[in-house]
């Protein structure tokens, strides 16, 4: 859990060692970085992350697979309906994760 003003790269770098075995990782344009792509590929994970429009060399990614990202966004939108998760009242990461898990269970 990071502060709200911390870049997504900081969180991604911290989680690289704990990423479970997967075939591919679906991410948004904010996670596009060459070092992140290389780290994923070294773990045998294919990144499905489009590059920003300002990138000099376009990045290849599976557009059909990327369309399923809307399901992830909808799930996070539903979690944000729970006021406790949105405002992050819990300062302890364990308590916050428990609240997210409970709310996700109710949504499911």
Automatic annotation (TrEMBL):
List, for all copies, the residue spans of the domain called Transposase IS4-like: 2-89
Supply one GO molecular-function term: DNA binding
- A single BP term in Gene Ontology: DNA transposition
Official protein name in the record: Transposase
Species, as recorded: Sphingomonas carotinifaciens
